[in-house]
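The following block was generated as part of the benchmark described in Methods. Ligand: guanosine-5'-diphosphate.
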Amino acid sequence: MVLLDLGKKISNAVNGALNNSNDDFVASVDNMLKAISTALLQNDVNIKLVSSLRSSIRNKLINGSSDNASLPQQQRKNLIQKTVFDELCNLIDCKSSTVQEFKPRKRTSNVIMFVGLQGAGKTTTCTKLAVYYASKGFKVGLVCADTFRAGAFDQLKQNAIKANIPFYGSYSEPSPVKVAMEGVAKFKKEKFEIIIVDTSGRHQQEESLFEEMIEISNAVKPNQTLMVLDASIGQVAEQQAKAFKESSDFGSIILTKMDGHAKGGGAISAVAASQTPISFIGTGEHIHDFEKFSPQSFIKKMLGLGDIDSLKDMMESVKHDKVAQEVQENMRQGKLTLLDFRKQMEMVSRMGSMAKMTQAIPGLSDMMGGNSEQLMQSTNQMFKTLFYIMDSMTKKELNSDGSIFFKEPSRMARVARGSGTSVGEVEGLIQQFHQMGSMMNSNAQRKLHQEDLMAAN
Ligand code: GDP
């Protein structure tokens, strides 16, 4: 991710100043500020914001107190680190408002309406948000009120089916207002707690788009309106956010395509400068490439400092998962199948993969030589290979404990051919699964033995 490179450059600049043993405090702070400013400008952050960040840090470190230069080395280090961190957070923090949070199991329906230009990532993000809330234990439904773009309903439908989220839409009804109203009414009647309405976009900001947005909004009375904005447009994000804000009073923004775009940092700071809160960011095309946004968490992760809050969020996301509970029950009973193994791997990849977790655990990324990006790529590839292999297995094979492959080795060759892998890779996966299975079995047997002993006593 390009922003991790930016983080690395900033960390290097700070570390350079911290490790500078020569006593010219002012010169080392100025060198650090120069390197930080260059890195931010290269990442499309607005020049005014960069120069204001530069003078705030300089003021706090140099002009604020003449004693800073004579502080003991460790205190001086802490001060520099804290000041840079705080000011980077200030740069992307929109202090004027906070994002509304919903509480699960309230038995009330909350309607969330999406707005934004075509191609910004609205439909994809609707499903991401639906999955986010479903993983927190909410009953979530999706409504496709985009009757403008051909294929929009099919896209939402496919995403929703894949993510196991109930959906509503129409192939024949031309009025987006009517579809939105019907969908929301249906889900409200069925006591859905979060109802997400996808609306249509246009290629540019047009009168007709704003009129339609207002009509739908008046009809479904959303509790929250979210604007989806493509981060790859960089600083222009500020203008676009303002134009939408004037016609639809949205609560917050979701910035998409934050992966791999140098302009992402520019978009975040520009949006923050327009006093609009950012609620989430999209970091890829996959359903789980989605993160709650908080300035502190974002900066911590970017600088490789880890972020316990997002780790908690990841753990929370599997707590309510029915599939996770089923797999755990099978594990407890020592009846693990290859299908359970697949589900387990899905869960891990849904939590954002081990490498994403590495970024969230303070210090771990550093321990791995700051190479979490490389690790992320190799774990993602490993997961993909595992899924390709398991997707080429028959139902009978998936519902087995895997020994069928050793009894009939031709099955391995068939799976390898179907998944574009080697027989060795297929065998490796089954062996891995067997090892896990025998561990589970001995645990389960130990548990049963303990239960027998307790019953006998
Ligand atoms: P809509 O017209 O606003 O509904 O946009 P879509 O949801 O159809 O998305 C447009 C394109 O952007 C699709 O190819 C998505 O896969 C892609 N997209 C959406 N969000 C992200 C993201 O966070 N990162 C990346 N790389 N692509 C995204």
